[in-house]
Amino acid sequence: MSNFYEERATMIAAGDLQEFVPFGRDHCKHHPNALNLQLRQLQPASELWSSDGAAGLVGSLQEVTIHEKQKESWQLRKGVSEIGEEVDYDEELYVAGNMVIWSKGSKSQALAVYKAFTVDSPVQQALWCDFIISQDKSEKAYSSEEVEKCICILQSSCINMHSIEGKDYIASLPFQVANVWPTKYGLLFERSSSTHEVPPGPPREPLPTMFSMLHPLDEITPLVCKSGSLFGSSRVQYVVDHAMKIVFLNTDPSIIMTYDTVQCLHSVWALRRVKTEEENVVLKFSEQGGTPQNVASSSSLTAHLRSLSKGDSPVASPFQNYSSIHSQSRSTSSPSLHSRSPSISNMAALSRAHSPALGVHSFSGVQRFNLSSHNQSPKRHSVSHSPSSNSNGSFLAPETEPIVPELCIDHLWTETITNIREKNSQTSKVFITSDLCGQKFLCFLVESELQLRCVKFQESNDKTQLIFGSITNIHAKDAAPVEKIDTMLVLEGSGNLVLYTGVVRSLPLHYKFCADSIVNSGKNSTKCAYSIFSLTGGLSDLKLEPYVDHYYRDYPTLVRTTGQVCTIDQGQTGFMHHPSFFTSEPPSIYQWVSSCLKGEGMPPYPYLPGICERSRLVVLVCITYLVYLFLFKLNFMLINLSQRIIGTVAGLNEKFSPFLSSQGFTLRDLETLPFGIALPIRDAIYHCREQPASDWPEAVCLLIGRQDLSKQACEGNLPKGKSVLSSDVPSGTETEEEDDGMNDMNQEVMSLIWSEDLRVQDVRRLLQSAHPVRVNVVQYPELSDHEFIEEKENRLLQLCQRTMALPVGRGMFTLFSYHPVPTEPLPIPKLNLTGRAPPRNTTVDLNSGNIDVPPNMTSWASFHNGVAAGLKIAPASQIDSAWIVYNKPKHAELANEYAGFLMALGLNGHLTKLATLNIHDYLTKGHEMTSIGLLLGVSAAKLGTMDMSITRLLSIHIPALLPPTSTELDVPHNVQVAAVVGIGLVYQGTAHRHTAEVLLAEIGRPPGPEMEYCTDRESYSLAAGLALGMVCLGHGSNLIGMSDLNVPEQLYQYMVGGHRRFQAGMHREKHKSPSYQIKEGDTINVDVTCPGATLALAMIYLKTNNRSIADWLCAPDTMYLLDFVKPEFLLLRTLARCLILWDDILPNSKWVDSNVPQIIRENSISLSEIELPCSEDLNLETLSQAHVYIIAGACLSLGFRFAGSENLSAFNCLHKFAKDFMTYLSAPNASVTGPYNLETCLSVVLLSLAMVMAGSGNLKVLQLCRFLHMKTGGEMNYGFHLAHHMALGLLFLGGGRYLRRQNKLLQFHLCSLTAGGDMCVHAYLSGQPFEESQLSMLACFLVYHSVPAPWHLPSIGLEGSTSFAELLFKFKQLKMPVRALLRLAPLLLGSPQPMVM
């Protein structure tokens, strides 16, 4: 597997020595702070003397020192992510002067500056450190809590800490620091011992030399030492020995190595949290109570530290005796509970919850020692403050609180004392390595003695301590660990490089060094660390030529076949012991898997833990898949699969992907596998994608390509109904955004779909209706104040028409995005119809009475607002009748929104849970909008069920369904219309004769003798036509039992007009008397009946390809007939004809233009012409209007045909016509067609375009919607705004979660092959030119027909296959190409989805 994953291979390559140049060095040269220094260094001394005079000389002399300054240093580490995991890049921390440069880079990407810091004084040291955020200081907190990753910069008087989140801390140092070390708990400081420090006298204890700080906001505390050898038997005290220096610190395990400069010995200590009893010992407090002498010693230490932090002599502190005396009286009264001094600064109350920038800079080291950030013990409970407190008074405090230690070092091991030991035997390098058996060694190099000392250590059985063994000395000049192969590289005294595994000498490497060390760990490391030759040299020495050939095939450029000298005694090779898994030929993973697939007997595949992990993973995955599929009983070395076998394919789909993830298998591993091995694995993963489990972790979701579910898995602990970002919204803006109705959208999922821009935020801004609109009106000098107010209100009225259209689009955008909480009402966003006029932001309202406002203008807008709120509820939500009634508003002005809410509950299937008693209660109230919403809702919930209870409910509101002798009910007209549509929904697709007969008659219902049926007849006729179409949906000429009704002929008469037929049925008596109000005579009023009849024909014959009916719907081809048809009806006719001839719809402009009659095409005018042609026979206005409406109808049918497909050809065609209509609106001759007609056609085309790109969020369509959103004047009315924002909602339907097809082009081509494949082949063979879309269709056609159909294959049981892998094995017997299997697999498996991932 090495040729697929080179970085994990165990081959070691060698190269020439190269100088390592830190990246930060070059960056510092170009840093602004380095400019003055460079100029000064380049300037001669004579110029400095002449230019600056004495001042220049003094300045030059001040820069001269007899000590060599440390000019630069750096350290490298493996990249670490924000969650603490290793990532594929390296990090460099470079220090030079006052600057620190943090850079990152990888193999594929050059180093780049990540952060740069400049401080006031020279940087002594810079390092990475992780601080625990939690205030829980127990040991378990350090393995589970979050950490704050920081860069720490040590200066002479302070230490700066900068977190990667942007927080900055500065802690003043109470002493000079010699060195600082990062630990798993925080920082560890070594205090430098000054030469002028006076040794402590008898009354005083020596000052500690090591300190710790667990968080930037914590105080610096002394380190406690528990020793059994250096300081006596089990003695606990502060670390006060100046001879003990830290030479190495490790975080896992948490150990410290120190060197005693007096005894010349190395020791190892465990770093841990201090225990309570140890804390009491060093503070001189026993559990029974302290003595005055002990307390005096503790306070003396505190005073020592404080005086030292001021820079004074430890002996000369004038406050020591006072503090000690007061501590004596305090300790006798209450040894365990103390109160703070009243004079302590307010900094004492600062905790980690406060901002780190609050006053941290203004406190000295004394205050840092005098204060504490946490209540670590009972001694820190009460805090009192005095208004007269000041910094000077703190030194005269009547009470002194001791500093409580945080960390302790526990002695583990000390090297034995030898008779002969050099004075300067301090180690120069320490590291931890492990051998191939997993044993760990602590190795430290003593250069003065040319020794590498290795100490083996291991954990105790209870995992609480480390046990160190004997020491092994290796003669070496230098050494370095090779972590990936559990070895270390040793440079022997002779210059040979040798690989050691633990303390066992392995193979010598064929490369010799002079006196150069492998890794120069000093501050000026300039030599490359790992320059070694090839492992193949040792293989050649062992006469393992097949293995040499194996590596040579994988790495031909890294293997050198000449100039190698055998360093292994050939006489000794015969005595070598070969393990049982070792073979003469290298094991081949491909051959092994291939033999398993063929059913051949194979020996167990060799597996060495820690060596061939990748081969183990591949074998495990492949064989597990075969065991799941064919129940093979296979075992191989150290891997027993019998416990993992599940003998069903269903179990495979549920457990295969989680099993892969548990083994560390990722998509990157899958991509590196060859096709033959990856194919069955991809097939299993594909099946897991279809029905993933809800409890799968994020890693499994990423493996199967469901990043959307991985985000939801991270959010699984959030309560349903709450916004994903609800916890992240600041309190100040929460109330502002909680009412727009879009807070419950899953922002994380949408950020995965549209991750490159802010289109979602833009859509949310366009669809919000909860905030006042901006009314921009300029007051001209001739306008009076009253006229200006009227002008603003008229402008607001135009904007309100747009605002009232927003809920429809918002309902589509937020579709099924909310899970309501049963104890909370559904939040319905406010429909704000007020405005704000700049510059004073004054309120503009329509209720002032200055202008005429249509009555009940907001009725339907409020209704749609309620529908939008109800459509947010997901179908899987758990709601009941009580919750529906609970949402009923108490205020009458919100009744319309509740009516829409009821309709929405019916659309998403929840209204079936509403009790019958509640339905009766709502209907008896007599509220018109509530009745409309309820009737439509219950009908939609019972779609196509012919439910008798709902039928009776609807029949009460439709006079035509009541008996002739029944009492006439005063049912509002709009309620009748809703009931008629409801009948169509309940009987959808049933072809129920009686219902169809009644609805057919209701399309042409004549007006009554009085005022009944005389108003809004068009809406009732249209509703009846739509209902009839739904009842007979798609039945075409197969309307069984309705031949006597002559449905198509009657609808055609309603469409074109003629004499009204005799009214049949039991209601014929009602229509004998003519209307006294409307004089229609015996002819049919096509203005009333044509829309409903046309759409009824379209729905009845939908997709039937009935050309006889389609010919009835053709646009007139003579000027005479065109004058008898309204242009708007031509749009409906064209739409109906195309829906019937469904298979003839093609996504190109040529097909769209083919729907225009020849007379219109030949006499159409260009709207860009200035002068119009004159003709007495032709009406140019009629021709132009007919042309645009026919084009719009064809585009609308194209939108229905390719809805949700994101078909590129359909998109390009519709986008072209949309741009054309926008151009026509500004053309010179736009008045011929009429701006209203052009706006209507543009809205229709935009809706079609949005249907094709539904759920995709296409930017070009969004730009059109955004442009039309800004148009509010002229011909723009409520209907246009409704269409534009409906298109915007469709474009982002459900936040991008619906109508998104994964294999758009493939599905389009497969659907289009039958319609246009033969025509493309004929055009290609005859040499005729054709478009690019036809060329791609031809390519699909040829590939499709080059593969045999299922019935052309011999019968070998292909139809019974249940998975793609099973098909693959059966298909091998046919010796057919893979493309045939890719085509036949969806058919044979019964799944329409393609198998390509």
From TrEMBL:
Keywords: Cell cycle, Cell division, Mitosis, Phosphoprotein, Repeat, Ubl conjugation pathway. Residues 323-343, 384-394 have a biased composition (Low complexity). Residues 81-203 form the Anaphase-promoting complex subunit 1 N-terminal domain. It comes from the Eukaryota. Residues 724-733 have a biased composition (Polar residues). Pathway: Protein modification; protein ubiquitination. InterPro entries: Apc1, Apc1_MidN, Apc1_N, ARM-like. GO terms for cellular component: anaphase-promoting complex. Residues 540-626, 642-711 form the Anaphase-promoting complex subunit 1 middle domain. GO terms for molecular function: molecular adaptor activity. Residues 319-343, 371-396, 721-741 are annotated as: Disordered. GO terms for biological process: anaphase-promoting complex-dependent catabolic process; cell division; metaphase/anaphase transition of mitotic cell cycle; protein K11-linked ubiquitination. Belongs to the APC1 family. The mammalian APC/C is composed at least of 14 distinct subunits ANAPC1, ANAPC2, CDC27/APC3, ANAPC4, ANAPC5, CDC16/APC6, ANAPC7, CDC23/APC8, ANAPC10, ANAPC11, CDC26/APC12, ANAPC13, ANAPC15 and ANAPC16 that assemble into a complex of at least 19 chains with a combined molecular mass of around 1.2 MDa; APC/C interacts with FZR1 and FBXO5. Component of the anaphase promoting complex/cyclosome (APC/C), a cell cycle-regulated E3 ubiquitin ligase that controls progression through mitosis and the G1 phase of the cell cycle. The APC/C complex acts by mediating ubiquitination and subsequent degradation of target proteins: it mainly mediates the formation of 'Lys-11'-linked polyubiquitin chains and, to a lower extent, the formation of 'Lys-48'- and 'Lys-63'-linked polyubiquitin chains. The APC/C complex catalyzes assembly of branched 'Lys-11'-/'Lys-48'-linked branched ubiquitin chains on target proteins. This is Anaphase-promoting complex subunit 1.
